[in-house]
Amino acid sequence: MNKKKYVYLIALLPFLVVAVMYEIIPLIMIIINSFQPDEGAAVFTLANYQKVFSKLLYQKAIINSIKISLISAGIGIVIAFIGARAAHQVQGRLHNVFMAILNMVSNFAGIPLAFAYMIMLGNAGVLVQLGKKMGFDALANFNLYTSGGVSMIYVYFQIPLSTLLLIPAFEGVRKEWQEASMLLGASRSAFWFKVGIPVLMPSILSTFSVLFANALAAYATVYALMMNNIALLPIQIAGCFVGEVQIRKGLGGALSVTMMIVMVVMILITNAISKRFQKGAAKA
Q1: What burial class does residue 16 get, using C-beta atoms within 10 Å of its C-beta: 0-12 exposed, 13-18 middle, 19+ buried?
Q2: Does residue 73 contact residue 207 with C-beta atoms inside 8 Å?
Q3: Residue 156 in contact with residue 70, Cβ under 8 Å?
Q4: CA dihedral 250, 252, 253, 258 (to 10 degrees)
Q5: I need a labelling partner for 38 at 20 to 30 A (CA). Which of 66, 82, 271, 281 fits?
Q6: What span, in angstroms and rounded, lies between the C-alpha atoms of 155 and 136?
Q7: From the CB of residue 193, how many other CB atoms can be counted at a distance below 10 Å?
Q8: Given a cut of 60, is residue 270 above it in pLDDT?
Q9: What tens digit of pLDDT does each residue of 72-87 get?
Q10: Is it the case that residue 42 has pLDDT exceeding 80?
Q11: Cα torsion at 46, 55, 235, 69 (round to 10°)?
Q12: What number of other Cβ atoms are within 10 A of residue 60's Cβ?
């Protein structure tokens, strides 16, 4: 058994090396840089964090990132719940087709996604021009280059990811429970609100935290669409390291640490709520 353990450790060694080189060391360096000035001697300072929380641009970036992440994660999880339930109930060829489409769509993101939205809903997009010809004002006057348009794009790539994450969770909802509730006179909606959703709530909250982190760190799609015309944390972080005469690694590190703190706080909140649901289910 000891020899097998050593073999497994040797097999894991390349992954550990990659993790240390490209995740742990960069993370440590970002944290260290966040407490150092961009110019001058390497001394401890909180000036970068003071700038992050005092400058209006960075305040807006934090607020906009949290707002868009919450909206896209909330809408995405609701639609994904319906889709995952449908995928769980339908079996056979239709289920396989649905899963194939989900896997394909989940990989369609970044610059290609931004380009597709420009073609369809940009200022001269196909759907916008169609709305003008048909007299549909809501579509004809739609502006993709706003926070609402960006939120819609975020929702697009949140739905397939959250659906794929929720489908396995529906295996925990047994058919016997549904049949028993039907025999006791409960409707389907009553079963899902009183039994199904509480059972699935830990998985739903975990998926929500993943979606929130996914949206908070998304960069390529929104940058290709908006460039620097919207204040978001990933764009501001990238601006500190790219396209400047002087690299502001201290400020970029402070913004990165701030984004990580926001992610950790959201994960802690969802985990705390999830534990309450688990305790309630155990008592029931």
Answers
A1: exposed
A2: no
A3: no
A4: 130
A5: 66
A6: 23
A7: 12
A8: yes
A9: 999 999 999 988 888 8
A10: no
A11: 100
A12: 14
